[in-house]
């Protein structure tokens, strides 16, 4: 099973880079997650890799850029990108996304919003008819730490069925701390009928930094299938 998924991720990542990487790119966004490992690997194989700079979305992608011999820059230095590649936790047919399973959603959204073109790479498990159906852990929401009790109450009023303050797991007692020193809430709304409206409602809550709902941002999505094929979704 694992090898099938890894093969699917690699196929999608390589095809996405091969078909979309601009020949004269100057600034490129590299996202986070298990599929983006192969994106960075493929970009690292380009012969002109000394001619562009790569912008990370977090600590992991910074390491990917360095490990693949690519030039590292920051979003502060380069606020306009030619293209960005990133993974997703769930993608619907409109190319709206849920992201943030890896806790980097704010910086991922910042880089995606700064890019002229945003390409998603994923495996077949991330394809969905409607957001919230396949990714059942909930919409990741980055919040200012002392707002979590209030935001939790607000999310219940918006219809969240289950709300968790994401915990650090075995290696850390207490909540996950993002790269921006914030907390993460995962709020399960079930099937999300109107992702744009829900994003706007959550974003307006005092204490919310950003939501993991990426609305009308992706231009293309590449999915590695179990069969070894790559499916491409476009707008």
From TrEMBL:
It is found in: Cytoplasm. It comes from [Candida] subhashii. It is an enzyme of class 5 (isomerase). This is Ribose-5-phosphate isomerase. One of its GO terms (biological process) is pentose-phosphate shunt, non-oxidative branch. The keyword Cytoplasm applies. Transmembrane segments: none annotated. Its EC number is 5.3.1.6. GO terms for molecular function: ribose-5-phosphate isomerase activity. Keywords: Cytoplasm, Isomerase. Pathway: Carbohydrate degradation; pentose phosphate pathway; D-ribose 5-phosphate from D-ribulose 5-phosphate (non-oxidative stage): step 1/1. It catalyses: aldehydo-D-ribose 5-phosphate = D-ribulose 5-phosphate. Belongs to the ribose 5-phosphate isomerase family. InterPro entries: Ribose5P_isomerase_type_A (IPR004788). It holds the Pfam family Rib_5-P_isom_A. It comes from the Eukaryota. Its main location: cytoplasm. The keyword Isomerase applies. GO terms for cellular component: cytoplasm.
């Amino acid at each position: 099973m694992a090898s099938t998924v890894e093969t699917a991720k690699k196929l999608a990542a390589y095809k996405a880079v091969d078909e979309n990487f601009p020949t004269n790119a100057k600034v490129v966004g590299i996202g986070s997650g298990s599929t983006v490992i192969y994106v960075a690997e493929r970009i690292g194989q380009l012969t002109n890799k000394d001619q562009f700079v790569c912008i990370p979305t977090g600590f992991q992608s910074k390491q990917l850029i360095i490990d693949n011999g690519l030039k590292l820059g920051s979003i502060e230095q380069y606020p306009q990108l030619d293209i960005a590649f990133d993974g997703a936790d769930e993608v619907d047919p409109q190319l709206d996304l849920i992201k943030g399973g890896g806790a980097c959603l704010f910086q991922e959204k910042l880089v995606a919003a700064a890019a002229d073109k945003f390409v998603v790479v994923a495996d077949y498990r991330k394809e969905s008819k409607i957001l919230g159906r396949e990714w059942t852990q909930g919409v990741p929401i980055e919040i200012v730490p002392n707002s979590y009790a209030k935001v939790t109450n607000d999310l219940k009023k918006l219809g969240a069925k289950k709300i968790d303050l994401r915990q650090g797991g075995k290696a850390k007692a207490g909540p996950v701390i993002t790269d921006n020193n914030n907390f993460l809430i995962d709020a399960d709304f079930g099937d999300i009928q109107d992702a744009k409206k829900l994003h706007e409602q959550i974003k307006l809550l005092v204490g919310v930094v950003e939501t993991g709902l990426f609305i009308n941002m992706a231009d293309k999505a590449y999915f590695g299938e179990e069969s070894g094929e790559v499916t491409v979704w476009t707008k």
